[in-house]
Amino acid sequence: MQSVAINWHVYLLTKSPFALGLVGLFRGVPIILCSLAGGVVADAVDRKRLMIVTQLVMLASAALLTAGTLFGLESVWPIYILSAFASAASAFEVPARQSLLPTLVPVEDFPNAVSLGIVVFNVATITGPAIAGFLLAESGPAVIYGLNALSFLAVIASLVLMKASGKPDLQGYWRGQLAQSFSVEGVSGNEPLVGSSVMPWEISPPMIVDPPDRKIPYQAWAVPIGRIGVNYHQYVDPRTACGSGGVPRLALQDASQILQPDGDQFLVWLHEDHHVQRVIAMNGRPPLGNDIKVTNGDSRGRWDGNTLVIDSANFNGYNWFDDSGNFYTDTVHIVERLTMIDRDTIHYEVRVEDPKVYTRPWTLVWALVREKEPGFELLEEACREGQRDLDTLLQSGMKYYFDKPWQGR
User: Fold this and answer.
1) Structure pTM?
2) Most CB atoms closer than 10 Å: which of 107, 201, 252, 285?
3) CB 46 within 8 A of CB 164
4) Maximal C-alpha separation, the chain
5) pLDDT one-digit tens code per residue, 109-165
6) What is the rounded distance in angstroms from the CA atom of residue 332 to the CA atom of residue 319?
7) Does residue 216 contact residue 208 with C-beta atoms inside 8 Å?
8) What residue ranges define each of the domains in the chain, with the CATH number in brackets?
9) Which residues lie closer than 8 Å to 380 by C-beta, 6 or more apart?
10) Separation CA 57–CA 85 (nearest Å)
């Protein structure tokens, strides 16, 4: 409607086809110049906020056109300039809107949502000019400009009222507390690296809360492999080789960041440790097939009240729980439960089940505490560029892990 009103308004003021053609130039050039940047910005910032900002710019353009027309605007240059600003805002708004849609509807409804959007757009394209023509004949362009400004208010109000999911906001930077990476069974003081001058292990209690003896319930064949056994003495820690720390060890190592995009369709957990990212589907999509195995497993998330539950399987078994070589295999099933007990503390509980290596399921717990350092951000850990120990370890006779101690079980 506003496009029709602007064209008519410019022609009324100038009676010049050339001046009317310039409207297209002032609309088109900002779109050409800003479209690529609009896509980049939509990927880099909060899309809902970007849409609000662009809607405010377009609202301001329509409001100024309304005011100018009511006060007897006689020059076309304000119309050109305001049209250019609105077009530039549109170049940023369109990619933000299109990429926001998949986060607002369930994946199974997404094709219908796209189809409905296309229908609405085509209906507006047909009916808008007709309505604009009627209003121009009856009231002039100022009414159309004013109605357009009001329409932006409606969109902004909808965006402001749009709520992601009503669930706890886990977003932010976090560090593990009441935890250490040496051994999930605790460090008693008899371990080989307690008192080391290089990387000393510190005496600490177990993180295991079940079973009552706070030990991993290994099957008999697995006891000599874990617990500072075969893995520790004969194999390179997968993390030392710059591989992923694995689940749940990643949450022990260095800082991490949790992101919850609008729509509650997925959750992203970024780890400073070795640049690992976990994308956790929250939309009920089916899991991977049993024959597909990956390092950090295939994760599906859901809310149990105010607790985030992450259910993961399909691990390849290439990771350890800790520096001691405690391990799981490719049949492990891990359930993480993240519960905010206050704004800055998450109760992190991990339930582990693996019939190939344990006699029963078991549970470990620690806290994730918010990182509050001003300006804090995750750093790029240059493990592969900075690794100096791996060659020495391999030359000493140690071997890459890759599940070898439990193959064939």
Assistant:
1) 0.67
2) 252
3) no
4) 94
5) 778 888 998 898 899 888 988 888 888 888 889 999 999 999 999 999 988 877 655
6) 11
7) yes
8) 2-161 (1.20.1250.20), 172-406 (no CATH)
9) 275
10) 7
